[in-house]
Amino acid sequence: MYDALNKGIAGARGDVVGFLHADYVFAGPDMLAWVAAAFADPTVSAVYGDLQYVRKVDVSKVVRGIRAPIRLAQ
């Protein structure tokens, strides 16, 4: 899998590279707009967010979550 991710990065031609794996979903319909707004700041080089594990049959049911630490890249 990681070989495929590295090949995708190597072949990318845009300004931003992102991954959303096969069984992942965005937290809401405006997440890509939020990411784009974050990258509008020239001091931002990476964005990431929290992770929530949800039920397969009902993604509104959160099983557990992992909170991303707040870090500022220099």
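Above is the first protein from milestone M3; the second protein from the same milestone is given next.
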Amino acid sequence: MRNMISELLEFRKLEQNYVSLHVCEQNLIPFLKDIYLSYCELSVQQTITFNFNTEEDDILLWFDSNQLQKVFYNLLSNAFKYTKPGGVVELYISSNDNDVKIKVIDTGIGLSAEDVSHIFDRFYQAENGKQLSNSNPGTGLGLALSKNIVNLHHGDITVQSQLGYGTIFTITLLKGRSHFENDKSTILLESVEEPVIKGESLPDSISPEEYEEINNAFPDLKSGSYKVLIVEDNEELLQILNTLFIPFYQVILARNGKEGLQMANEEKPDLVVSDVMMPLMSGMEMCMKIKNNIDLCHIPVVLLTALDSVEYNIEGLQQGADDYISKPFHAKVLLMRCNNLIRNRLLLKSRLTKQVDFDVQLLASTSLDQELLNHLVEVVDKCMGEPDFDVNVLARELNMGRSSFFTKIKNLTGMTPSEFIQNQRIKRAATLLRERPDMLVSEISDQLGFVSTVYFSRCFKAKFGISPAQFRKKDS
């Protein structure tokens, strides 16, 4: 289902001209050899002979490897699907001065003349292949998607086939780069590693009116009250993001995932916005390390990437990312989505202090935080009535240093550990006042470890606006 949805989305974006090619000059042979090797195990499993033949060991060609690999994966998947055990599948490459031809040849069930004339139509599926594909149905978009990608490369794809004899798909791609130079849907890169966010793909700036609108929409986000760590290896985009966030946040900059992880440990930001494709450490790996570090895992992480397929989105979210935004993005949308992450955490922290029955687990966004909060509440509930119970005892019970414990609890709950203990005591008091009408206020105060009934009443009124006696009367 995920693959089918991804294929539908890819086709829709291609159809509506939302896809740009990011082409650079690469050696086509190693690129195709990698794809060939990924199908070798399948050929053994299905007892199909799989051959890789090329007339040259090096063929330099301008192409988008991310897009073009979809074409060959699609063609080879179909070849193996419709070729019976004992058959042959071949990937054959030849070239001349002007172009390169790549053929995917199989000895499968073949196509009728009518099927050949419609094979690149969207949603079309050949009649003789439907029965074979019932156990693994497709969308009928794979070949239409492949044709669109080849067309974007200013190439051509053709098919020759005969029932019972097999099929040959031939892809022709032009050499050189002149056919791309005036193409507005293509970005020319100097190398595979070059960032793809360039020129017109950079986000637009936000007008003063839009900043005022955002400021009014998020009154709790006072300028400079919260830190955002921006991790991006493209210097131009990094400075644009810096300008975008600085009216609202203290901005910390890092230029790769390794530096970003170090800054996250040192600065403990309230939000991390990171590119995915970076040297030394990717944004995906940095996100995983943040979300598996008890001192950092509460920090929301937003990933930015030009790899906008469903699979990459799912992988990013599986690593714990709180949001995933595809490039090119609208600057205002990015800023508002980041502001929402901060505001939502503020709202949850506010509910913790105001609601008697608020579930502390709602503050946890990772399993590490859930485990920590479970243990925290368990220890506080068990020990709050003991006269010697304090923050030092609580930190020892949780096997954390006092300093790191203070920072973590403050960031996670919006309270200092002392305030959290006091809040839990007051919440327990409210529960006892409601459920145990036989207990005196002084008994509840003593049981929960308050130094005096007067102090307990003062703390209770500060939280709920009424005295314990008034709370009990109102609740009853």
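Note on the second protein: The chain has three domains: 2-188, 199-349, 355-475.
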